[in-house]
Structures are given as C-alpha cells and as structure tokens.
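Before relying on records like the one below, remember that each one covers exactly one chain. Contacts with other chains, cofactors or solvent are not represented anywhere in the record.
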Amino acid sequence: MTAPALVALAHGSRDPRSAATITALVGEVRAMRPDLRIEPAFLELSKPTFGKVVDKLVRAGHDEIVVVPLLLTEAYHATVDVPRAIAEVTERHPGLKVRATDVLGLEPRFLEVLDERMRDALRAARVRELDALVLAAAGTSDALANQSVARLARLWGSHHKLPVTAAFASAAPPAAGEAVRAFRAEGRRHIAVASLFLAPGFLPDRVSELALEAGAVAVSEPLGAHPEVARTVLARYAVGAVELVPV
C-alpha cells in the first residue's frame, strides 16, 4: 500500500525569501523521509498553488493526501482558508481522500529553535547580557491564538529567568517597538526580540525595524528550515496518515 502523499501547505508571501524558506523546510522533511511523496504548496501569493499540487499528485496516482498546514497558530487561515481549499480540490477530484492535520502550532520544542536563532543574533550583535526578552509573532484578531503566543512567552521566560513580553506585528497590541519601550521605561537596557515567524517576509522585517528603532539590542531570524520544525511536520503527518486508515 502506498503511503499518503504529504502536502506542506504554507500561506504564501510576495517576498521570495518566504517561498525559498518553505522549499528548504520541505527539503529537510524529504531528507528525513525519502520514502514519502512530499510537496510544498501555498494558499496564495506564492507558487505552486495548493490546487495545482493536488492535481499533479492525482495525475501521479495518489488518492490519499495528508495536508500539514505550516501555520503557527490556529487562526483564520487554519479554520477557514485551509478547509475551503481542501473542499475545492475534493469537489474537483471525486474519490480523493484529503486529511488536514493540526497546524504546526507553538510547540514547546520550538523554544530550542528560538534559543538557537537568538544566540546567533546576539553573537552577531556582540551582545553578552540580557535583562528582558520580547517574543514577537504575527498577531491575529483571534484572542485565543494570541493567548497561545503569550503562554509560550511565559514558558520561554521561565527557562531563562528573564521577563518576557509577547508582541504582535498586526491586529493586537503591543507592537514589538512598544514592548521594547515599556521594558526600557522600567530601566532595562539589554532587550532582545525573538521572531516567532516561520519564514522571512514583510511582517518579520517590520518587527525588526520597529524593535531596533525602539532600542532593542538584537532581533533574531525566524524559525526557518530547522530540523526541529521538519520533525514536527512529520509528527503531524503521522497522525493524519493514521486517521486516513479505514476503521
């Protein structure tokens, strides 16, 4: 029996660095599971589109697909855009079985990736001490999704025994610059900002710009094509593949 194909479904961006990062992440996943058919796809703004990828897989003989949404929170894209995209392809391909898994989410294991990216940023900025951290994410109108970022920030702060504030690039306060200024108003001067984004793009760039203007000593790169992220993709796939097995 052929294993279901895996489609790693990202949102997409006009910034070519974003698609390049997703492609590199899929490369990491393929290296871990060379036996699987694994394809990247995008909801919008980047190519290949989800529909085109599914069409290609169907032509290649695949009748079962597990979709892993490359999203860090369970917000609008996960609850509306992904189901809508799946409904469109299943209507076009009768008999095709498609299972969407949970989003990547904010796994505690991603704190290791954040630490690694932060160490790189601090080394590049020649910073040797910190007295506060800001965890900056995209932000959404979904309060529960924003709360999940705040929970991860508290967990990260407890690991480092430093105060940490969650900040958002859009849709919710505080912005990264505001969070940095609030810490500076308390007398803290060595504040670093972590980019809780999967890939580079407009929002992480904006976070970095505002944070540095406000006095941050360093801003880390997004999570990117890290092996820990790739392992999480495969963990989500494993659950989705089991759910496709007839009971």
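The radius of gyration is 19 Å.
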